[in-house]
Amino acid sequence: MNWVSLSCGLVKENKLKIMLINFRDGGFKLSFKEMIEFQLQIDSRILNSMLSELEKVFDKSTKRERSWFCCPDFDDQDLSQSWKESLDADLADDQLCLEKLFKNPKFRHGYVEVDEKNAESVLRGLSEVRMILRENSLKEISDAQLESGEISFRKKNSTLRLGYFCYLILAEIQERIIAFVE
To answer: CB 3.0–4.6 Å: which of 34, 46, 97, 140 could bond 118 by disulfide?
Structure first.
């Protein structure tokens, strides 16, 4: 177990999780499952208020039109259909993996647990949610302000503040997962 200092504070990391697998005869076998685990240092009340906003954004992502990912060869109907079906399946998998993260009871308390084999799907899902936050909740903020973090919230409404906080927390989660994967 390692302690790492991040912009949000100290984060506890764990890489290897031992899982007990139950067999029909009642015995247990040790199984090693690679998990990416860490804890965000954030008050659970703040995180819980953020989760309601994330739930709304996640719902938007599941209902979002996927037309911006066009097939490179429009003339070939079979290729276009296969492209769309494959993309839809990948996006559904990304959303399912992200939903597992958000629905995990530990997440409400700042614990992030991701199966290492699902890390890329979770990263893509987090990117999509951040893009939707950017397009909706954060449209008043310029890209330069968003990248630099130089935003005055005195004149901004609470929805914008909550959207920005969600955006930052999701970015922190992405950075931590990427650090594990690399």
So the answer is: 97
